[in-house]
Every structure is written in structure tokens, then in C-alpha cells.
Amino acid sequence: MFQFDTLSLVFVALIVLGSVPNLFYSFGYLPHIERKWHYLIHYFAFILSMLGVVTAGNAMMFLFFWELMSLTSWQLILTEVKEKRTIDAARFYFFMTHFGFVFLLLFFLIVTDGDLEMGFAQMRGIAHAFAYPTLLFFFLILGFLSKAGAVPLHVWLPYAHPAAPSPVSALMSGVMLKVAIYGIFRFLFDVLYPWPLEWGVLILVIGALSSLIGVLYALSEHDIKALLANHSIENIGIILIGFGMGMIFDALGLKVLSSFAFIAALFHTFNHMSFKSLLFMGAGSVLHETHTKNIESYGGLVKSMPITALTFLLASVSISALPPTNGFLSEWMIFQSMLGSSHIDNMSLKLAIPFAVFALALTGGLAIACFVKAYGITFLGLHRSANAKHAKEVNKRMQTGMLLMAGVVFSLMLFAPWYISHFDAALFSLGHASVYDTIFPDGVWRIHSVAVHGGVVSPLVLLLALVGVTGALWYGYKALRVKERIHRTWACGYRTGARTQYSATGFAGPIRRFFNWLYRPNEHFEKRTLAGHATKFDRSHYAVHVKPLFETALYTNAARLANGISYWVYRLAHFEQTRYAAMIFNLMLLVLFSFRIFAHAFSWATFALESVVMIISIKVLIIGDKK
Amino acid sequence: MILYLFTIAILLLIAPLLLTFIKALKMRLLFKRPLPLLQGYRTFAKLMAKETIVSEEASQMTRVAPFLVLSPLMVTIFFLPPAAGGAFYVSFVDAFTITGLLALSAFFLMLLGLDSASSFGGMGSSREAFISALVEPAMVLTVFSVSMMAGDLGVGQAGVNLVHHFPKEHMASYLFAAISFFILLIAENGRIPVDNPETHLELTMVHEAMILDITGVYLAIVETAASVKFVIFASLFASLFMPFGPGLSAPLALLVFVGKLFLIAAAVALIEVNTAKLRLFKVPNLLGIAIVFAFLSLITFYVLGA
């Protein structure tokens, strides 16, 4: 029924670390929720179901808890049903999560031979006997990546996460996406183990694309929770880059490098859990005080909400992968594992890796820009709306939640070696080489790369050095006893006001313009000019909205196709009732003929003959004469 | 150890001098009367003596950010490759970390720009974010490539390795990496084709726009940070792409090192005199060249081994 091996326990730890601060936050948030019982029941069921997924010992339990997790989170999105957008988002989520579930079910039906209570270890034999392992792999990644939110199955995240109450979006983004990562780990290692090189390359490509697309759409987003949801796509991409590198190295027989890359991926999974939960909590607090998700109507909140601002800053620095935070450490490990690509003999693969490095580095640069925007526009400057002006710090329980999560972020930074030793143990239990001694050959002060000529980093020394130098500078400043005068901002003679500040749209402007070919934004610009002058105007309004390209290209067209088909089915279904019998007869004919064609020797003559019979029978019996 | 600390002290001391030297050389080339070389120190002393004016719209960020802009750069100074042979060097920080520390400094500088609610600050931050987002991949790829030729990702060790073993057999990729890094040096320090450090026309500014609203000691700190950043880039370029000199006796080696820094400053001045500032949306083209050269460097290394 249940199993508690090291990998499961590592993910249990992840869920516990993610949920405990969330509980505090959630109870602080509770007075503002109308349907309290509905919320609480589903909230606890959600956490328990996630624990169930990572400890499930057979396919039946796994699928049961997986579905329970999907349904409870779906109900949690529907906690505050006021807008039509929430219902749409919930419906979209429901559809996408079951789209993935179908593939998982197919996967399990094949690898268990129908006996869903079989343990995972026994499935390996059946999977190996199966003729098309790549099909199994596709089922697996379609099932799990649709939950994890990797490109191109990511489109539900920017809808579902903003619609849910903030503690739930923190849980969904911080923890639930990681449960999908657990699934990939578990079944790739336990069931599909010796994997070909191509699978790893595919995962690497998906990861690189997800990270870039996630961060680019995050930059153009003005809804703070949708911005964070897009960053989840980015971070899942980063995790998948590490994972893909691990798979590639493993397929090439470079076991040590492979373990290193997988550890990096696991570490980033933990890090993303910590800072993304914290960011969603911070965004939730801001939203709670200002009653708007639009980043353009925040501003100046650092003065009224210091705890939120401080924890949000910590999480922003960490998610931007700036040293010495935990986000930097895991991204550093992923870079180091890519540097190990010089060990690869396959030349075309070797030449491809720099492009992944490029994608990851560009992602890092854009993430910095995005979080300067998110933090700077939200917390700095002047209040951009009356709501922001009247904001005050949230209640103590919500603060406790945020501070505890900040503690988790700090612990991941300070005790990185301790966490890594557990990731190492988890990989060891999956039959991989143990690399802890190679990463930390001389104590916990330095993290070494396992690649030849790899780098070394020491988070603790860096932290101490930064704190020390900053402290010394500050002390020096205090010793100078500088006089201070408060005066309004100088703006070349104009008065600085809330409306003359730089907006989030303006901040992302240059980047949006550079990536115009991708965004294809809808721009609205209206200007009321004075007396026909082109340059004199008293009112102007500029708004830009970016519609996700993938959604329009992939999903809208798919929906259009489905609509078209359903229209024809509808037309067929509205004949007079006597023709239903004819339709059934024709379907049976079709099935029998198809069986004959595929099961017996195929010959063009019978195929043509049977087609002609089918067409005549459809024409005569169903379509009939035109009236 | 003493030599190590002495080198750091020298680097910190000549930081303002280098920027003044660029300015003076430019003025000389433009047939103007050059400013005295000690101007950088004078400005610093003057700013230190002034009172600070803090904008009333600003938050605590304005009081904290200047220190956080300078301290990552100060930390980076301690991790640079040794200028003289036998000098102590810190081996536990690699090139990615240095990239990260520079980004950390830029992160707080951008927040500082947004803090005072001035639209110029926002404009500067926005442009800095745009430029540094594109600098990041070029920087990482260049670092990646150089580390392969130097046989170590740690910059300290890489500098030492390059002195002992100049990568003659990889000359092509080495040169490509050098070109790429020099473009990054110009872009990251806000020199002319990318940003004009002397302009007073706010619409063209990047770095100056962000710090338009800070004064006194805070301004002195941020200006010091700018000069320290230039010294970091110049000495990285000097150690990684002009790897000669540290084998000499210590005083001579230091002299050669400082000479190299001035050579780089002179090259920057020559470029500044001979080019016009690019429009903001042409800057990606220049950075694109840096990225392409970084890729070329890696690919020639992989494919040709040259």
C-alpha cells in the first residue's frame, strides 16, 4: 500500500516544509473566506492527498491520491466564486489535470498489465517487455508535465493560480507542482530505468523552452499572481534542465555527473518550493490589503508593510539566483553540470549544450529584470492608488507564516550540505552513484563541482563576507555622523507625483519591444489632444495586453477543431429517429470491416471494395435523399 | 598574504584614478584642457563632507541600497586572480559566482532607481534591466569558454594557469572570448556605445539616471561602486586575456599589472572618442555580437580544438 523509501521521505519533507508555514498563513487568511468549512475540508484533504501521492506504494493508491489532489485543488480554486473568470479558470484546470490523468492511467494500465495493486518494482519487467518504451515515456511526461506546467502544457497556470486564494496558490505552485516532479523521478527510475539518450534531450529541450517562455511572459504580466505563476513555469523549466542533463549523462554512462545533475534538480525543486511559496504569500498579503491584483495600483508598500516587504525581498533575491541565496546555489549546480558537457563525446550533442546554457543564462538575466519590476513597482516609490495608501501590515498569523517560510529559505541556504546529503541518499536508493563526498571533499564550507576543472563555491563564506563588508561600510557611515535632510524628489523642476512614476508597463517596455515578435501585444493608446495640436494633450491612456502565443496557436485552434467536429456530430444526431438504427448498422459495419482489414492480410482490392460498400450504405441509409 | 592585501588596496586606490584617466585622455584627444588626474579623489572627498539629502518619497531602501550596491563588488575584489606571482589568492569562488555578485549589485542599484518615485530613476532602472538581462548570457558563455581554455572555472586558479600555460593551441577561441569580454566590459560599465557616463541629458542616461536622486555620502558610495566595477572588469580582462607579468618579481609584477589596467582604460577612452552612443534599441545588436563571439569561441574550441 504505502512505501517510505528515501525518495518518498525527501518529498514528504518537501511537503511538510511547504505546508507548515502555509497553515499559519492560511489561518490568518481564514476570516476573509466566506465558505470556511468548504475551504478547510478541501485544504486539509489537499495536503493529505499530496502526502498520499508521494508515499503511495502501488499504482492504485497513486492514482487515487493523484485524483484526490486534483479534485481538492480544483475545489479550492472555486473557494471564492464571484467572478466568471474564476469559474473559467477552474474549468480550464479541471480539463488540463484530467487530460494528464488520462495519460497516467494509460501508462499504468500498460505497465501493470491491468493489476493496479502491483508494486512499482514489478512494473519494470512488464515495461521492458513492452514493445514501445518511448510511448510509455510520452504517456508519463504528458501526464506529469501537464501537472508540473512545462511548455506547451503550461497554459492553465496563469489562470488557475491567480484565481485561487493566496495560501492555496502558494501550496499549488510551491508544493503541488513538485509532486509532479516526484512522479517523474519515481517512474523514470523505478519503471523505465535504462533510458535512451533522446529522452534526456527531449526533457532538456522542454526545460530550456519552459524557462525562457515562462520568464518572458512573466515580464509582460501585470497581475502579480499571474506573474508569479509564469515564474513557476520558468522554474519548472530550470528543474527540467537539470533533470534532462542528468538523464543525458546517465545515458552516456557518466554516473557521477548524472547524480550531480539530479541532485541539482532536486535542490532546485526544494528551493523553488521555499521562495515561490513565500512570494505567493507576500503577493497574497498585498492583495489582501489593496484588494487588487494589478501591480500598477500598488507602490510604496514597503513603508506600511515592512515584514511583507522584507520577506518578499529575500524571496526575490533568491528566485533571481543571486548569491549567496539558495536559488543561486541550485542554479550554480545546474550550470556546473552543464559545464560537464565537455566530457561528452557526441559532437552534435556537445554543440547543443551551449544553447541550453544560453537559455538558462538569459532566463537568469530576465528573472532579475522581472523581480526588480515586481518588487520595485509593488513596494517602492509612491502609492499608485488610494487602496495602496490605506494598506497596513497583515495580521500576526499571516506574518508568522511568511517569517517561517523565510526561515525555510534561510535554512536551505545555510544548511545546503545537509539537504544535499539527503538528496544524495535518495539518488543512492534509486541505484545511482553517491557523490556527496565528491561535492564536499573538505567539510561543509565549500561546494565543489564534480566536473573536471569545475568550480567551487562557498555560500557561507560569501554570506559572511557580504554581511561583514556591508556592516563595516554601514558602521563607517554611522561613524561619520553625516547630517541628513529630507526633501522631495528632484524631477527637473516638475513635481513628483504618483502618476509621473515609472509604471510596470513602462519598466518592461524595452524588453517587451525587443521580444515583440514573440509577444505580438495588443496595444491600446488613446490621447485627447488640445485644439488640434499633436503634442499637447490633457489626457492619455496607454495599455498593453499580451496574449500568450501558445494559447492562441495551440489551444484555441484545437478548440476550434473540436467545435467543428462537434458541429457535425450535432448535425448527425438531429436526424429523425429511424436513422439511428442505420447509423448503428453503419458503425458496426465500419468496425467489422476495419477489424478485417487490420487483423487479416491486407489487400487493396478488399479495402477498395469495403470502402465502396461503406460509402454506398452511408449515402443510402444515413444521408438519404436531399429534400 | 601581505602582497594580496596590498594588491587589493592598490586596486581600490586606483579605481577613481582610472575613470578620471579615461575622462582626461578623452579631453586631451578632443583638444580640450584635460581635468587633473586627482579629480576623482577630490570629488570623493567633497561628497564625503556633504550632508545627505534623502528624498521624502523614498523608503528605507535608499538608506540601505548604496551599501548593498558596493559590498558585493568589494567582496568580488577579494576574489580576483593574483596580480603578482606567489600572491595569495582565494580559490573558493568561481566565475559564475562573480557574475552573480555583479548582478546582485546591479539588482540593488535598480531598486535604488525605483525608490525615489522619480520617473528618471525608473527609466534608468528599466534600461539597466534590459541591458543587463542581455549581458548575462554573453557573460556566462564567455566564462564557460575561458574556463575550458584555462582548465579551471575558479578565476583565481584560471589566472594562474593561464600565466603558466598560455593557450597557444586555442588561440582562435581565446581571441573570440576576448572580444566578447571586452564588449561586456564596455556594456556593464556603461561606457559610450551603450551608455554615456558624462551626459546631462536625462533621456540618454542609464547609470546616471538611476542615481539622480541620491546625494552626499550615498552618492560617493555609489560612484565608488561604479569605479570598483570598472576595476574588477579591467583586472579580469588583464588577468585572463593578457596573462603575462605575474612571473616577475613582486614590485615589478604589480607595476606591469597597473600598466595593463591603464592600457585597458586607454583603449576604452579611444573607443569612446571614436564612436557615438547607440540608440537604446541598437544596444542589443552590440550585445548580440558579444553573444555570437562567445558562441563562436565555444564552438571553435569544441569542433576545431583551436
UniProtKB/TrEMBL annotation, chain A:
Its main location: membrane. Keywords: Cell membrane, Membrane, Oxidoreductase, Transmembrane, Transmembrane helix. The chain crosses the membrane at residues 7-28, 40-66, 92-110, 130-156, 168-189, 201-220, 232-254, 260-280, 301-322, 351-380, 401-420, 456-477, 580-598, 604-624. The keyword Calcium does not apply. It comes from the Bacteria. Pfam families: Proton_antipo_M (PF00361). This is Hydrogenase 4 subunit B. PANTHER family: FORMATE HYDROGENLYASE SUBUNIT 3-RELATED, HYDROGENASE-4 COMPONENT F. It is a multi-pass membrane protein. It is found in: Cell membrane; Membrane.
TrEMBL record, chain B:
Keywords: Membrane, Transmembrane, Transmembrane helix. It holds the Pfam family NADHdh. Its main location: membrane. The keyword Flavoprotein does not apply. It is found in: Membrane. It is a multi-pass membrane protein. The chain crosses the membrane at residues 6-25, 67-89, 95-117, 129-151, 171-187, 217-242, 248-271, 283-304. The keyword Nucleotide-binding does not apply. This is Formate hydrogenlyase. It comes from Hydrogenimonas cancrithermarum.
